Amino acid sequence: GDSVITVQLTEEDKVEDDVVFYLVFTGSTVQHCTSTRKVNPGSLETISPGHDCCETVKVALCASREGHPVLIVAEESFQFVQDEAYDAAQFLATCAGNQQALNFTRFLDRSRPPAADVDFLDEKVALAFRHLKLPAEWNVLGADQSLTENVPRETLMHFAVRLGLLRLTWFLLQQPGGRGALSIHNNEGATPVSLALERGYQKLHQLLTEEEAREPDSWSTLSHTVHSGDYSVKHHRGLDVYMLTAEA
Question: Where is the signal peptide (predicted)?
Fold first, then answer.
């Protein structure tokens, strides 16, 4: 989800300015309807929806004009794939309280991927996390809430800060247990806050310590989502397109 989709119109589909085009994505349990932006007479742009599972969906390009019935201009299949970022987000979400698994992730730190790779990983994994269906009881600190903050342990927040993942850290801060994780020491006595300071991650340290800290730049800062029951409406400010998502 959240990547730009371009639609090329054929000669016969290029019509007057008062025609509005939109795309309807129909999956097994969820349907998305997105408005489009006209780039020129022959092409449209919109944002791909974040889907709830990896599957092939039907996409219909529809045309609407005041006083006329809605027309289906074209239909095509569109595949949502399960990539490494999705796998990583699922793994991390499942291992929120698993000390063995969280200690295992520390080997990534020793390999020290290049900054460009870290930024790519941060953007993709944070985006995948946003589109996961997390259980209502999910917590950054794991399912066992009987543990007190004084018990030394590794947390998802330690993982995100250790690698310098700004956007993932922001996402975790907004989740249950996110703020509580900031004061938890691991077996080396480090908190996520002290880790950020020790590694010289100034922006990350600012994010963790300033009350008014803003979300790091990403696709999500360009959009605003409103939820209501089984529906949500998302406005992407960059392209000025809207997306309605409804559970079937």
Answer: none
